Amino acid sequence: MKAIGYKKSLPIDNENSLQDIELQTPKATGKDLLVEVKAISVNPVDYKIRQNVTPENDEWKVIGWDAAGIVTAVGEETSLFKVGDEVYYAGDLTRSGSNAQFQLVDERIVGKKPKSLSFGDAAALPLTSLTAWELLFDRMQVSTEDPNKSILVIGAAGGVGSIMTQLLKQLTKLTIIGTASREETTNWLKELGAHHVINHRNKLSDEFKTYKLPQPDYIVSLNATGLHKDEIVKIIKPQGKFGFIDDPKGGFNIMPFKTKAVSTHIEFMFTRSMFQTDDIIKQHNILNEVSKLIDAETIKTTVGEHFGKINAENIRRAHALLESGKAKGKIVLENF
Q1: Using one digit for the tens of pLDDT, what is the confidence trace for 23-44?
Q2: Calpha distance 136→139 (Å, rounded)
Q3: Domain harbouring 23, CATH code
Q4: How many independent structural domains does the chain possess?
Q5: Count of beta carbons in the 10 Å neighbourhood of residue 212
């Protein structure tokens, strides 16, 4: 089967950083599905792994954690899917990724692809939807019914923020405050349902004063958390909840939150699959709920750009754009 992989962690402008390769097609056993990958999307986790994880024993490493495709074989312990089903999923960080024609994936972290979407549009959704849903509703347990509460989403125009803003708009009564720094991304957030958009290049506390915004009950930081920490401490409401998904340099000291008794929550979408948690099937259920919301036209896909066929050259372009920090929405690729 065709695949895209690497043997050494190299800068993305080096053509060997990701290469077109041929690998043996795997076989499905146990709870695994063998999926023929029709489309993928690219996430920051892809380039972080490429930059920091060197394969052992001169083997090829195949990355990629967002896919949509068709089930072509099932393991003997499966019960949720059958051959021919159209599916989408983010996968498991500890296993071979979706940058390949065929991929093995545990059926408990796979959802039914939205019927109304193409494979490309569906591939944009799994990782970001799971991350946003888990952080909001599993980790932070945000209020869904109180219209007097508000939430600030820092870095809201990216992949996770684009789906999170929609979930907040459609599933809660919270006032949604998003951050962006360009006219294009500001308009994007308003289109997705943000009630207010402020500029994260300025001090957040100054922006809150300028627009006379209330102290947020919840703050979610999706990138540059270390840069905004002091401002987050300053503006969050006492006894509020703070959640983040990135990796602040030098670690993250939560002690400044003590005087406000702010609870802190970390979301890592791969935890359930990495540790085979008792509730691992929750990801199957979340993806199915997202499919229903998509097909009901309650929320929409967050594709920002389509980079064409799935090959090394196009995936390198996608990594480069993500590394630049200028991506809007998700980057998808389709067909080999």
Answers
A1: 999 999 999 999 999 999 999 8
A2: 6
A3: 3.90.180.10
A4: 2
A5: 6
In the chain, where do the E strands start and end? Answer: 2-5, 19-22, 32-42, 67-74, 86-89, 102-106, 110-112, 150-154, 175-180, 196-199, 218-221, 241-244, 263-266, 303-306, 330-334
What span, in angstroms and rounded, lies between the C-alpha atoms of 263 and 229? 14
Please name the residue that has the structure tokens 């609870």.
263
Q: Assess whether pLDDT exceeds 80 at residue 326.
A: no
Band of residue 80 on the pLDDT scale cut at 50, 70, 90 = very high
**Dist CA 109 CA 115 (whole Å):** 18
Cβ atoms within 10 Å of 326's Cβ, excluding its own = 10
Residue range 84-110, pLDDT digits in tens = 999 999 999 999 999 999 999 999 999
Of 222, 240, 266, which one is at a domain's C-terminal end?
266
Domain containing 54 equals: 2-125+276-334
Task: Round to whole Å and give the CA distance between 231 and 204.
Answer: 6
Residue type, 228: H
Please give the Cα distance from 221 to 171 (Å, whole number): 20
| pLDDT at site 116 | 97
